[in-house]
Write a structure and sequence with these properties.
single chain, alpha/beta, Aspartate Aminotransferase, domain 1, Aspartate Aminotransferase, domain 2, 2 domains, 7-stranded mixed beta sheet, 4-stranded antiparallel beta sheet, about 40% helix, globular
């Protein structure tokens, strides 16, 4: 059986679990978004729109791009695999550590993988030396901004230099921006570059509007042939009617909701970093809604067994190993519960 390499699997434990293993907007979605999904469930005798027309219009208007640049899927992970199967790169460049689905999809295609290792001593910042790794023969550079699990954003100037470098060497640049709306970064800074080709941007309402159970992501790309190939590689109805209704309501009526949540996210991020460091943990200087930290190798097991708290074990990330964990920020009360549990589990410091 395939090993599950992500957070959120709370279904195998008979006890209630406080789940810090997933990284979502801690304030959840606006109530109207959930109400739209509920109403769509009642319209149970119709298939969902196979082309996600309303969603595409709303996303295109919000991002300031043509509708034909937009493709929706059953979460960003669905689109990652469809994109890789459509592009079929022979050699790809990844960060280490970074989101595991890029590697999983590339390995399924037999694609060669080169890595740019990130360094704890530098706070896992993406180095400018990545430009030197983009050379002829590299077909794809797949980045995560902010990077997952480190929470570090890629400097905008470096990102633009990477795009220019990729275009100069013939590499395709894919940038996973699923968490970017939950940082101080500008998610639309690269959107004007889409028309120039060789660029794909990934977004996820799963993250920014906390719609994990509905599964909803989309990509922006100026290469219509590539998007059509991706569309053919998906199922006939890739997005459920409740997910479409919720997403359209979110994008049309609450386009600024993620940015309105930033003060709460930033405040909890600073508090948690400070308190966790006081407990003797090394915490990566994150700019996102999640924190990577290093602690005892058995800490995750003890938190689940003795505290009923699930954190994301990052031992399977390339470039990390045992003793590395990631937590998604939650409400202030829930974050305090985690801090109290950590204090009980880390008595010597």
């Amino acid at each position: 059986m395939h090993r599950y390499d992500h957070g959120g699997d709370v279904y195998g434990d008979a006890r209630p679990v406080l789940d810090f293993s997933i990284s979502l907007n801690p304030l959840g979605p606006p109530p109207e978004v959930l109400e739209a999904a509920r109403r769509a469930v009642l319209d149970w005798n119709r298939y969902p729109d196979p082309r996600c027309r309303g969603l595409r219009r709303a996303a295109a208007r919000r991002a300031g791009v043509p509708e034909e640049f937009v493709l929706f899927g059953n979460g960003a992970s669905d689109l990652i695999h469809r994109f890789l199967r459509a592009l079929r790169p022979r050699q790809a460049l990844l960060l280490a550590p970074t989101f595991s689905e890029y590697r999983r999809g590339l390995e399924a295609l037999g694609c060669g993988i080169m890595e740019v290792p990130l360094c704890k001593a530098d706070g896992f910042a993406v180095p400018e030396t990545i430009l030197e790794a983009v050379r002829p023969g590299v077909d794809l550079v797949f980045l995560c901004d902010p990077n997952n699990p480190t929470g570090r954003r890629i400097e905008p100037g470096l990102l633009r230099a990477l795009l220019e470098r990729c275009r100069g060497t013939g590499a395709f640049l894919a940038v996973d921006q699923c968490f970017l709306e939950l940082t101080e970064g500008d998610p639309d800074a690269l959107a004007p570059e889409l028309a120039g080709g060789g660029l794909l941007l990934l977004r996820a309402l799963t993250k920014s509007y906390a719609l994990a159970g509905l599964r909803l992501g989309y990509c922006l790309c100026g290469d219509r042939d590539l998007l059509e190939s991706m569309e053919r590689l998906g199922p006939p109805w890739p997005v459920s009617a409740p997910a479409q209704a919720a997403g359209e309501t979110a994008l049309r009526n609450f386009p600024d909701w993620p940015s309105q949540c930033l003060p709460v996210i930033a405040g909890e991020r600073e508090r948690m970093t400070r308190e966790m460091e006081a407990l003797g943990l090394w915490v990566c200087p994150s700019q996102a809604n999640y924190l990577l930290f290093q602690g005892p190798p058995d800490l995750g097991e003890r938190l689940l067994r003795e505290e009923g708290i699930l954190v994301r074990d990052c031992a399977n990330y390339s470039g990390l190993g045992p003793g590395w964990y990631r937590i998604g920020l939650k409400t202030g009360e829930e974050n305090t519960r985690l801090l109290q549990a950590l204090e009980r589990q880390l008595p010597e410091r």
